[in-house]
Amino acid sequence: MTELAEDVSGRKRYTAVAIALHWLIAFSIIGMIALGWIMGDMPDGADRFALFQLHKSIGITILLLSVARIVWRLMNPPPPEPPMPGWQGALATAVHVSFYVLMIAMPLTGWALVSSSPTGIGTTLFNMIPWPHLPGLPDLSLQTKEDLHEPLEFVHSKLAWVIIGLLGLHLAGALKHQFLDRDGLISRMAPGLFGRTEGPSARGRGAPYAFGAALLLFIVGAAAAQLGASRAGASPQSADAVSSSTAPFWTVDPATSSIVFTGAYMGRPFKGRFAAWTSTIQFDPDRPEDARIRIVIPTGSATTGESYYDENMKEGDWFNVSQHPEAVFEVNEGVSKEGPTDFEATGVLTIKGVEHPVRLPFTLAIEGATARMHAETTLQRLVLGIGGDTLAEPKGDEEWVADEVSLVIDVVATRE
Predict the structure, then answer these.
(1) Lower CB count within 10 Å: N or C terminus of the chain?
(2) What residues contact 324, with CB distance under 8 A and at least 6 apart?
């Protein structure tokens, strides 16, 4: 009879694993909502891009933790609740079920939004681990991606407001039980802070299944990203060219590598960068003639930190992102060595469907398995067909935007 009274009074708490997952997910969701508001008020630029990557990283983390939480919940029923009116119990159950649904739906809609984005910008979890797009979505036509973007963005953002509403209901209910009903309900999930508990009703079980399911999803995702990166966008010709070389492969560190461009608008300098790009690099400093390089740059990832520039660069007479979402630079006939640390790559830059020969001098320093490359070159945007349609008269556009664009490339890579 005494044990029954303890259960009814709500003094039996959740297991330690359930409590830890509860608060980890709760604080992560609150942080995600705050990040969403901050990003919405930020101008385009490197800082905003970095926050987007962090937002995506936390979202995938929430998805993995939620998988573990659901499996644990199925194998470890919660402690009995204190007596309450039927409508309150039904409302509490509805709120909890809705939370579980949204904990999965929110990351999935965000993942789908990124995967179907016309820009094709990838995700790197906490700047360390590449994460794949959802299967099938990157292969959709550009028009279909553009048609999907707004509905997915609408659903993803509105689900955040639903979570905010549920958090309000959940908090209000917890405070009611704590301060009005005084039934010790909240102490089940926050033992010690809001009253003493008698411990969980039973010892927790199923940790290998709960965390194993989350770990399996993570491993599959990380492996798919690595497999996709090795095959990203390679045409049969370039794939053959890469396979014909026996030079070692190099993995680029995106956190310490960059492609930066500078120019001038109405005489005022501007600076930008491509926030996302992928690479396949084979290079042996002792046999540079065997080098094979392929760089794929989503043109929609170009950002200067000024929304006026960034939006115009996506238009048809500039990068025409909707029709030509990628620029590709390929070196399939090796690299020439000009000095102990000086090299020059002669490759083909394909932009807006047109091939242009480009000579890229660079310096290279290799220490152990780490290589640092620095390259600088100047391109004529009108030759590349960038912004050329805006010319009202010969060279009229050059009065607004300088024809010469300087390109600075820094790469840090590790030999595989």
Answers:
(1) N
(2) 299, 351, 352, 353
Q: Which CATH superfamily is domain 233-415 in?
A: Lipid/polyisoprenoid-binding, YceI-like (2.40.128.110)
pLDDT category at 392 given cuts 50, 70, 90 is very low
Q: Which fold has domain 2-229?
A: Fumarate Reductase Cytochrome B subunit (1.20.950)
Choose the most confident range, by mean pLDDT, from 131-135, 317-321, 370-374, 388-392: 370-374
DSSP calls for 120-138 = ---EEETTTEEEPPPTTGG
- Other CB atoms within a 10 A radius of the CB of residue 200 amount to 20
CB atoms within 10 A of CB 22: 17
Residue 356's SS3 state is: strand
For position 202, what pLDDT does the model report?
77
Q: What is the pLDDT of residue 381?
A: 87
As annotated, the residues of the chain forming the CATH 1.20.950.20 domain(s) are: 2-229
The secondary structure of the chain in percent helix, strand, coil, rounded to multiples of 5, reads 45, 25, 30
CA distances from 268 to 160, 175, 392, 414 (A): 40, 57, 21, 38
The model's pLDDT over 263-275, given as tens digits with 9 standing for 90+, comes to 888 778 889 999 8
Contact predicate 131/225, CB 8 Å: yes
Cβ atoms of 317 and 388 within 8 Å: the answer is yes
Query: Which residues, including other chains, have CB under 8 Å from residue 218's CB and lie 6 or more apart?
Result: 64
In whole angstroms, give the CA distance from residue 117 to residue 266.
32
Give the predicted TM-score (pTM) of the model: 0.58
Domain with CATH 2.40.128.110 in the chain: 233-415
In terms of average pLDDT, the best of 99-103, 170-174, 332-336 is 99-103
